Amino acid sequence: MARTPTPLQHRGSFAFGLAPEAVERFRDVMDRECGVHLTSEESWARAIELLALFRMMLGPLPEDARPASSTIRALDGCRRPSN
After folding, report:
1. What is the pLDDT of residues 2-17, one digit of tens each?
2. How far, in Å, are 3, 17, 44, 68 from residue 39 at the CA level?
3. Residue range 39-67: average pLDDT?
4. Within 13 A of 63's CA, how many CA atoms are on the CB side?
5. Which of 6, 25, 52, 53 is the most buried (most CB within 10 A)?
6. How far apart are CA 20 and CA 22, in angstroms?
């Protein structure tokens, strides 16, 4: 059964650096091990959610360290004064 790639998969990678091949493997594992049949779009969404959950549980990672954006710095000046 051939699976039709989604437009998101043609971009090479998506959130968290996911590649179409990794999401396809995830989809196959879900089907084989859990008996859950996911569409391509559902596979992308579930894989992204799963990776986000693991990253949240692991806490800050070295690759997450980056300087505060100008938006965050601008909002820092908007704090209410303490009484």
Report:
1. 555 444 444 556 677 8
2. 9, 20, 9, 37
3. 85
4. 4
5. 6
6. 5
